[in-house]
Design a protein that fits this description.
The chain has 243 residues and is an alpha/beta fold. It contains nine helices and eight strands. Helix 4 packs across helix 9 and helix 6 crosses helix 7.
Length: 243
């Protein structure tokens, strides 16, 4: 199967990093590709939804025409997901939908998110049917570089800017997310934790070592594996049974 991961940015500065994470997590017969969005402001961080919504939907339509079997929208809040499903005949998913459809299999679940979005996740979880399973939303804060510095480095030194962003995400893992996951397990009885920012992807090993009995739901790899399941089901159902 051929799957496309869409980074909802106008910049491709994270694409190679994301592709490496996807290739490591993909099944042997899965071909993955990563793209960012054309015609969107070139920023290292996600712009307001209205600045990329139409471009995102067009990219998904084009992906079907190009022969991709499924698409991941690469943002933990799943922008445009419901509209995208109406426009194409291939499976489309996002990190939060993948979480909502897999976490109940583990049982009680926790979301770890940054503070400025902390109040948005519980209502979203309830809307996705996770109300009986959600035990807590816990906070692990991170900062992005100063906007002026980010803009300058984006033009002059993307490698340094990417290093700064990802280093800060790793700091938040060690300074907050490990302990928040431990508390989720010991206090809340959580069995699975979802990390509600794609920048945390690939950084969860220290948490796995510290809290080994909890399933850690990686925000980039999880939707990939869920999409493989969806495409596999669709491909199997298209095979006519032998006479």
């Amino acid at each position: 199967m051929r799957l496309l991961y869409i980074s909802v940015l106008g910049s491709d500065m994270y694409n190679a990093h994301i592709l490496g994470l996807l290739q490591e997590g993909a099944a042997p017969d899965t071909e993955v590709a990563v793209c960012s969005l054309e015609g969107v402001p070139k920023s290292p961080f996600m712009p307001p939804v209205h600045q990329f919504y139409n471009q995102l939907l067009q990219t998904i339509i084009d992906a079907e025409k190009q022969g991709f079997d499924g698409v991941v929208i690469g943002c933990s809040s799943d922008p445009g997901l419901e509209d995208a499903k109406k426009l194409v005949n291939i499976p489309v998913t996002g990190p939060f939908e993948a979480y909502a459809h897999t976490a109940p299999a583990f049982g009680r679940t926790t979301i770890i998110a940054t503070g400025y979005k902390i109040d948005t996740w519980a209502p979203r979880a309830v809307a996705h049917g996770l109300g009986p399973y959600l035990t807590s939303v816990r906070e692990a804060n991170f900062d992005h570089p100063d906007p002026e510095l980010s803009a300058r480095l984006h033009d002059e030194d993307e490698d340094e800017l990417r290093r700064m962003v990802l280093t800060e995400m790793e700091r938040s893992i060690h300074d907050a997310a490990i302990e928040q996951t431990r508390q989720a397990a010991e206090v809340d009885g959580t069995k699975a934790v979802f990390f509600a920012c794609t920048f945390w992807s690939g950084m969860l090993d220290p948490i796995a070592e510290a809290v080994p009995d909890v399933a850690l739901l990686d925000p980039i790899v999880l939707p990939l594996k869920y999409l493989e399941l969806l495409v596999g089901i669709k491909q199997y159902s298209a095979i006519s049974p032998s006479a």
